[in-house]
Every structure is written in C-alpha cells, then in structure tokens.
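Data deposition worksheet. Section B asks for the primary sequence of the deposited chain exactly as it was used as input, without tags or linkers unless they were present during the calculation. Section C holds the resulting structure in token form. Section D is free text for depositor observations; keep each observation to a single sentence. Incomplete worksheets are returned to the depositor.
Section A, Depositor: J.P.
Section B:
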Amino acid sequence: MKSTLIAMVASLVLAGAAFAQEKVVGVENPDQLFTSTDPVLHHNKQVTYKIITVLLEANQWDQADKYLTERYIQHNPNAASGRQGVVDYFTKVLKVKPSPIPEKMKTEIVSVVAEGDIVTVAFPREVTDPKDPSKTYTTTWFDSWRFKDGKADEHWDSALKP
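Section C:
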C-alpha cells in the first residue's frame, strides 16, 4: 500500500512537471542574428531586419516599397495581399503613427533562420491564459518571408482572426 501511494505521488509530481513551461525569451543581441556569410542570405536577413525596424517598429510605411514587392502575398487572415493592402492595414485599420527608426532593434528575437529564399524569425509572445485571465504565459510567434529579387514577396505568420 505504501509503495502504491509513493508511486501515485511520484506520478502526480512528474505529471505536473510535464505541464511546466520555461519562459520563452529573446537573445541578448538580436542584431547578430541578421547576418550570414552567404551574400544572398545576408541580403535577405538584412531586408528582414529593415522590415522589423523600419516598418513594424517605426511604422515608416511610406518606405514599404524598399522592402516589399508590389504583389506581396499575405497569408495573415487580417491583412490583404499586395503591398498597398499591407500598408493600408497598418496605417488605416491599425492606425499606427510613424516614429523615429531605432538605432538598434527593440523587438525581442528568439531565432532567425534563412534557407533558400525564405527567412523565418521567431519571437517570444506573452499571452493571457484562457483558463485564468489573471495569468499569462509565453509562447513563440513567428513571421516568415519569401524573397524575390531582393524584396519580401510573400509572408506567413501565426496570426488568427480576432
């Protein structure tokens, strides 16, 4: 009986550990992740860096033509395809206002992976616990861009409809 009780307690402790989560955190210096010894991958990573800092952080959407193709295919269910559709989403729907371009990236980054014509960036994201709205947890958000002729031509992320 005693060994059965010990086994049950051990099982509960181990089961609880299986549901524990380590907090998702960004790297100390995200700028270093946006480089590559391969010149094409380096260029694509640098354009991705500009998309994040110039467009997403500074909301300088008047510069979108430097980084996004005109046909920019959007797989986010909340924004239209086409460069102008994305610009309109941020400037007219979300009503973001331009701010100075940061000297260094402010966004926390977990990883940057570039292969072929795709760059994927993973970000930590804090989310409200649906079972207990007084608590939050971290998870990983991602954005992926496919590049064509040096500009982002297609985009995927983990966005859901509100």
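Section D:
The first helix runs from residue 2 to 18.
The CA atoms of residues 53 and 105 lie 6 Å apart.
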